Amino acid sequence: MILFPTIILISFVLYIYYKVMVLKTKDPLAQEYLNSKARMALGVFIFFFAVNQYLFYETRLSLFVGIVFLILGVLQFRLGFKASRHYQNEYQKLREKSR
Description:
Layout: H1 3-24, H2 28-57, H3 60-98
Helix pairs in contact: 1-2, 2-3
């Protein structure tokens, strides 16, 4: 049972890390890439938070709220993953063009 809180904590720390890195970075392409990584971390956080809350309370209300959070977490992760792949490819194209 210590697995879910550990994943929740790590994903929250990664979310905060990527958001701070967005503020430090001046390159717009790098900012978009870091935002997509932050979105993936947020999706993992929401997903595992929902699972943890349902396993902790085991009520019908926590099931319904958990299902909503599961869907939101999966959507956040999926959108972040797609954007991350896109901006990673764009960054590689930019590096090849500058050579």
